[in-house]
Write a structure and sequence with these properties.
Elements lengths: L1 E10 L2 E10 L5 E5 L8 E9 L1 E6 L20 H12 L4 H18 L1 E8 L15 H13 L2 E8 L21 H15 L5 E3 L2 E2 L9 H9 L8 E5 L3 H11 L3 H8 L6 E5 L5 H10 L2 E4 L1 H6 L7 H6 L3 E4 L9 H16 L13 H17 L14 E4 L7 H10 L6 E6 L2 E5 L2 E2 L7
Parallel strand pairs: 1-4, 5-6, 6-7, 7-8, 7-9, 10-11, 11-12, 12-13
Antiparallel strand pairs: 1-2, 2-3, 4-14, 14-15, 15-16, 16-17
Helix pairs in contact: 2-3
């Protein structure tokens, strides 16, 4: 049994002093006890927090990060960026796919993300031919997670069409495309292979309502319910205005409203972006207990727009954060952007808080860690007995009270420096560097 000690740790009931963490051989927290002496435990410097879940990643896009910052002759948008991404993807074979994911996951751990939900929609070889082993690229994602030590919720994605109205896929989308039956077979193979693995959880996803048929939705929910485990269901939703307009033109309603008409939404669902959701749709998400998975740095990079997170959480909505395109892998930057875009929209300050929790940094961290745990389908997001042993330590100035110190770490440029990261009981980052990999920055 591994034992760690922290002078200050953020527990579910708030900040606690002199906390002793005992980690079982299975990688879970066996006990969390405040008011203890170190008694030979490994000392974690600074503030100790639960590791942050990353609820939305396309790991392969890390290879593309920063390579599209050049204006085109007729303007640029999400859609022009997507075409460039498709072109880049055509060059990536399984070995490169795994190497990129390994680098991305090691970087996530160094940033304080201890679990990632990999939204995995690249199933086929360039040109669309199936691999000899249809789980080839999913297996490569698992291999990257195992090598780095990050907790993985693998979210295989059904992708069939290019747009609403069952428009045929474009040639560059053929790497994504599977029939429903082929997808269901792939998903069951993955569940059989990894369903009992403590490091790996399995979700599933309709990519978006423009990429699947409405009739696929209840079948996917049925597939998720066909196994004993709680299977989270993720989906891109209302990211771009063009998507909303196309849904209105074909179905006479907006994407999340259409989703809610088609299946019974519940707490298993994580709807990614929701940038252009209507008031009614946001209320629907909040009332059913689903999570809005927000990716502020990618949403800013792609010009998506601003999700009204303040109103959403004050209405009882649950939020989490993801790195999406992986143009940025930085917990503090994601949370800063989440708060700052709300300030820009409202011209006010210190918006993400709650009664009894006036510290924006603490509120943001606890809220997104809790929402991320739900969206991941895992017992994570809090430092409590029975949860996965995901702990990070953040350097801070001695003598600063914890709420202020966390605010400094999140909002002062360069101050977010995870020194130690323990993921599933495995000490993967020491002195700010991944202990097992030399990651080039």
């Amino acid at each position: 049994m591994s034992v760690y000690f922290a002078r200050h740790a953020l527990l579910p009931e708030g900040w606690a002093k002199d906390v002793r963490f005992e980690v079982s051989s299975s990688g879970d927290l066996a006990s969390v006890t405040p008011g203890c002496a170190p008694d030979g435990a490994s000392f974690l410097q600074g503030l100790v927090l639960p590791g942050m879940p990353n609820v939305h990643s396309h790991a392969f896009q890390r290879a593309f990060a920063g390579r599209t910052e050049r204006a085109g002759p007729s303007g640029d948008s999400f859609w022009t960026w997507r075409e460039a991404m498709y072109e880049m993807l055509e060059t990536i074979e399984p070995d490169e796919f795994e190497a990129i994911a390994t680098d991305a996951y090691a970087t996530m751990l160094e940033a304080g993300y201890t679990t990632v939900c990999e939204f995995h929609y690249v199933h086929n070889a360039p040109g669309g031919a199936p691999y000899a082993r249809r789980t080839e690229l999913a297996d490569r994602i698992v291999a990257a997670a195992r090598r780095t030590g990050i907790g993985l919720t693998l979210v295989p994605v059904l992708y069939r069409y290019s747009d609403f109205g069952a428009q045929p896929p474009q040639p560059r989308q053929l790497r994504f495309v599977l029939s429903f039956d082929t997808f269901a077979g792939l998903w069951r193979e993955l569940y059989d292979a990894y369903g009992a693995d403590a490091q790996i959880a399995l979700g599933l996803s309709p990519h978006s309502l423009r990429a699947v048929a409405v009739a696929d939705l209840p079948l996917l929910v049925e597939l998720a319910g066909s196994v004993p485990a709680r299977v989270p269901i993720h989906m891109h939703a209302s990211e771009q205005l063009r998507e909303v307009e196309a849904c209105l033109a074909v179905h006479g309603t907006t994407p999340i409203a259409l989703l809610a008409q088609s299946v019974a939404l519940d707490a298993r669902w994580c709807l990614i972006h929701c940038t252009h959701a209507t008031d009614f749709e946001r209320r629907t998400i909040a009332e059913c207990g689903a999570v809005a998975g927000l990716c502020p740095t990618t949403e800013a990079s792609l010009g998506d727009g601003i999700f009204p997170a303040v109103q959403f959480v004050r209405a009882g909505g649950r939020i989490a954060v993801g790195t999406d395109s992986n143009v940025s892998i930085d917990v503090s930057e994601e949370l800063r952007w989440l708060e700052y875009v709300q300030r820009l929209a409202s011209r006010e300050r210190n918006l993400m808080h709650a009664e009894g929790e006036p510290f924006v940094g603490t509120y943001l961290y606890e809220t997104t860690a809790r929402g991320g745990a739900q969206a991941s389908g895992r017992a994570i997001g809090a430092l409590a007995a029975g949860r996965r042993a995901d702990l990070i330590s953040i350097a801070c100035d001695a003598g600063t009270e914890p709420d202020t110190a966390l605010g400094v770490a999140l909002f002062r440029s360069g101050a977010w420096k995870p020194e130690d990261v323990i993921a599933g009981g495995r000490h993967v980052v020491r002195d700010g560097r991944h202990a097992g990999l030399a990651v080039e920055k």
